[in-house]
User: Which sequence fits this backbone?
């Protein structure tokens, strides 16, 4: 009887929930490239909690290696560093920079990022790869402050009562801003550029190092970065009907 | 005592080619879709629709198979026809809403293309 009841239930269920993966095309066609070069990143001048440029370069190299068919080139020194060093030579004293100097560096760096001739030469040197470069920023955020909250308190007769009030909440975290350039190493032309912003906040009892936070934020951003050059899947569920 | 013949009937219903009704094609299509064999599932749902063009369930399932295979225009048409036939069906409506959500995402991406 149990077998019959069980079988009847299966037979009677009129729907089946099923996982689906629908394809999402890449933003740029990279089929013409066999190699990819992560050419380094522009970061703000001054002391930083995380060595952003090398960490980002290394992380993206690893991701590109495991998620694309492109051969990932690994130069001893990212080509962008050499170009930026020239403008750095003129700036700073003892590792300290004025506001004007920071602005000057920012303008110089933007010029390099948009210099088609520079990227064409880099491309020539590395046998016409797809070049990934850009700008990365990672900043501490403090959103501490009073926040309204509701809580249940009990009066002298043990009756619950809803009380509204404000409580000081310490919420600190980090934000990551990245602008990635995808450059055609054959022509030096920018094929695509895109900005990404991610932020994470932690409660007062959470002690998270800047480096861990950086990886947490990069982890969120990576699917969108990879979606520029490789097809992605949108996962979901649908209901098949009997 | 009744269990054995009943089970046999259920099993027979899932054998492809044992019948040509749309219900059998749908049942087999679902069976193979659950195994991830979406090309075969699509073929079965298409066959079910050919046998019974106004079968909303078959059209809904075909929509899913088409969506899974990246045939988005055809998937939309299948879902819309299924909904037209059964406007109050929450499952078809839910599938169609999720399809449109994913489709919007795709279209936003496509528009950003240089």
Assistant:
């Amino acid at each position: 009887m149990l077998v019959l009841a069980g079988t009847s239930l299966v037979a009677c269920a009129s729907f089946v929930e099923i996982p689906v993966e629908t394809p999402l095309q890449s933003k740029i066609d990279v089929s013409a490239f066999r190699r990819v070069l992560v050419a380094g990143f522009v970061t703000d001048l001054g002391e930083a909690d995380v060595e952003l440029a090398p960490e980002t370069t290394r992380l993206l190299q690893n991701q590109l290696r495991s998620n694309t068919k492109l051969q990932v080139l690994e130069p001893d020194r990212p080509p962008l560093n050499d170009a930026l060093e020239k403008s750095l030579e003129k700036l700073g004293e003892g590792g300290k920079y004025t506001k004007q100097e920071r602005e000057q560096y920012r303008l110089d760096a933007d010029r390099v990022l948009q210099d088609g001739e520079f990227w064409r030469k880099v491309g020539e040197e590395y046998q016409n790869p797809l070049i990934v470069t850009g700008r990365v920023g990672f900043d501490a955020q403090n959103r501490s402050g009073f926040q309204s909250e509701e809580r249940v308190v009990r009066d002298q007769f043990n009756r619950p009562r809803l009380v509204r009030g404000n409580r000081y909440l310490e919420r600190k975290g980090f934000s990551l801003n990245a602008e990635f350039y995808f450059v055609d190493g054959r022509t030096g032309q920018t094929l695509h550029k895109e900005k990404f912003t991610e932020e994470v906040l932690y409660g007062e009892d959470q002690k998270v190092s800047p480096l861990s936070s950086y990886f947490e934020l990069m982890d969120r951003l990576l699917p969108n970065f990879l979606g520029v050059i490789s097809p992605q899947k949108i996962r979901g569920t649908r209901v098949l009907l009997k | 005592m009744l269990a054995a013949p009943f089970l046999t009937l259920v099993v027979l219903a899932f054998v492809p080619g044992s019948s040509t009704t749309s219900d059998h094609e749908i049942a087999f299509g679902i069976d193979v879709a659950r195994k991830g064999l979406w090309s075969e599932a699509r073929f079965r749902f298409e066959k079910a629709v050919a046998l019974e063009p106004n079968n909303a369930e078959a059209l809904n399932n075909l929509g899913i198979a088409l969506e899974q295979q990246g045939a988005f225009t055809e998937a939309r048409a299948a879902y819309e026809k299924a909904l037209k036939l059964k406007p109050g069906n929450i499952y078809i409506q839910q599938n169609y809403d999720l399809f449109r959500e994913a489709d919007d995402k795709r279209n936003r991406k496509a528009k950003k293309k240089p």
Observations:
- The first strand of chain A starts at residue 15 and ends at 24.
- The beta strands of chain A are 15-24, 35-42, 71-73, 130-142, 145-154, 160-169, 172-184, 190-202, 232-241.
- Residues 31-144+172-230 of chain A form a domain with the Rossmann fold fold (CATH 3.40.50).
